[in-house]
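Recall the central idea of this unit: under ordinary conditions, the amino acid sequence of a chain determines the structure it adopts. In this exercise we apply that idea directly, starting from the sequence alone.
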Amino acid sequence: MADLKELTILMRGAGEMASGVAHRLWRAGFRLVMLDLPAPLAVRRRVSFCEAVHQGSMTVEDATAILIDGPEQADAVWKKGRLPLLVDPEMTSLKALNPDILIEATLSKKNDYGLNPNMAPLIIALGPGFQAPEDAHYVIETNRGHNLGRVIESGAAEPNTGHPGDIKGLTWQRVLRAPREGVFETEHQIADLVQEGEAIAMVGGEPVLAGTAGMIRGLIRPGTPVSKGLKVGDVDPRGKQALPGNISEKARAIGGSVLECILRKYNT
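Accordingly, the structure predicted from this sequence is:
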């Protein structure tokens, strides 16, 4: 049996879903490094470790990610019980980190960089766009429903529906999208309560209107350049019950499935 705490995990992505997975692995005692973009576009920023790119550190529930400059700094962060995060979208640190496990958690819905099982002893890909075992040893279903969290050994996850999850019978109404290309500006904060039709933000002089009343659960950072149609926020119709600082049940479920894959490989 391998010493699980000595395994090195490299996770590509540090947004909402990736952060929920990372948090679960951290709680289980694993050491991992997260990689993300120089300007992440996370909407649910209160539960996304990628905010460390902007702030230097980010705490999600009881775990803290620390921005590092290179893979050689990871060990010092692990010794403090924290999660190192590196700006490295091209994964140039792969060779230096030499991970036992590589998790593709960007939810990009496409294998645009040649992910393959030769990159690490165990490759796990989240969501559609990846095929097991050709691209990864395991693919995890990320679509809500009876198959959420299913570990796929042969085949792919369900295709992207393009529709957000249903909360209180609402789907597309919850999502805030940029009405045009421009710079996203807002005076609202995550956790603000808003009314249907209320202007939440401005992009290029045009308002971003709430499609439902509720609590703002996510907003991208003000001052971010955006394209027309980009998701810039979401409103949870549950209002004060939304808990925007809590990892979602979906992210926790996916994290449990990733943990299952690791134990299948190494707990023998």
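The chain is about 15% helix and 30% strand.
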